[in-house]
Design goal:
Elements lengths: L1 E10 L7 E11 L4 E6 L5 H9 L6 E6 L2 E2 L5 H4 L3 E4 L13 H9 L13 H12 L18 H14 L4 E5 L7 H18 L3 E4 L3 H6 L3 E6 L2 E7 H6 L2 H12 L6 H5 L1
Parallel strand pairs: 3-8, 3-9, 6-7, 7-8
Antiparallel strand pairs: 1-2, 1-4, 4-5, 9-10
Length: 264
């Protein structure tokens, strides 16, 4: 479902701030793979997601989604293939529009626009049923402006919108990092529920090692712009945080020194 082959990305080339963010990244995600991606600050996790989504143009290599070569496609051209939830709950929804209007936009993704009535009563009932799965009481607030919702409510809504029309690939970029622990746990459980129910191919960046181990069927760790660990299957089910830190040290030759990750 996703093939990343020999990808390089360099920022500020030819200046004192030159940074090789991605160095010869190659991996493949099969349909239904739920991969958690972890690494320290500057490892290249978010850069990788931005390259896959088309936010950044890669310098070298190729990217395929469901067999389609998207390497040269712009971000908006890839949008029909990708669902994405960002770290900032303010992104991914239109704050000045109502809940039902935001859902209608997501529901019509990739469809041709017409002059028919915007939202039918049948559609509203469908939205209510979908919102009930969030267990946040939003099904009775269809007309409420999204900007009035809490960060957790908004992020849960964004997740619902991203998965409403089954995307070929779901990208979750530290989508619970800005939430309090209790809300973050709820959004993570909802993510797991939607991914498993829809058999969605997913790449989830997280700063939390325990979450990286608990969720998904595969774990990848990045360091200095490279994927240095790719753990899956039975091995992933048995691995602990201590094992992960030890493996990191063996492969990188350094200690894992990111407080944000370790304190999680």
């Amino acid at each position: 479902m996703l093939t990343v082959k020999g990808v390089y990305k360099r920022f500020h080339e030819g200046t004192v701030n030159e940074k090789l963010a991605l160095s010869n990244i190659s991996f493949t995600l099969e349909e239904g793979d739920f991969v958690t991606l972890i690494g320290g600050n500057g490892a290249g996790k978010s850069t990788l997601l931005n390259c896959i989504a088309g936010v950044y143009e890669i310098d070298q290599g190729s990217i395929y989604i469901d067999g389609i070569d998207v390497t040269k496609l712009s971000e908006y051209r890839r949008a029909g293939l990708i669902g994405r939830v960002f770290q900032d709950p303010m992104m991914g929804t239109a704050a000045n529009m109502g809940i039902e209007e935001n859902l209608a936009l997501a529901f019509r993704r990739g469809k041709r626009r017409t002059l028919s009535w915007g939202i039918s009563n049948q559609e509203r009932e469908q939205y209510k049923e979908l919102l009930k799965t969030l267990d946040l009481g939003l099904e009775s607030r269809l007309g409420a402006k999204v900007g009035l919702l809490s960060g957790g409510q908004r992020q849960a809504l964004t997740l619902l919108m991203a998965t409403l029309k089954k995307p070929k690939l779901l990208l979750l970029d530290e989508h619970t990092a800005a939430l309090d622990p209790k809300t973050a746990e709820k959004v993570l459980k909802l993510s797991d529920q939607f991914i498993n129910k829809g058999h969605l191919t997913t790449l989830m960046v997280t700063h939390n090692m325990r979450h990286a181990i608990k969720y998904g069927n595969r774990l990848m760790m990045m360091y200095d712009g490279r994927v240095i660990l790719d753990i899956r299957g039975e091995e992933k089910q048995k691995i602990t945080v201590e094992d992960l830190l030890q493996r990191f040290g063996q492969v990188s030759g350094e200690e894992f020194a990111n407080d944000r990750v370790l304190l999680s």
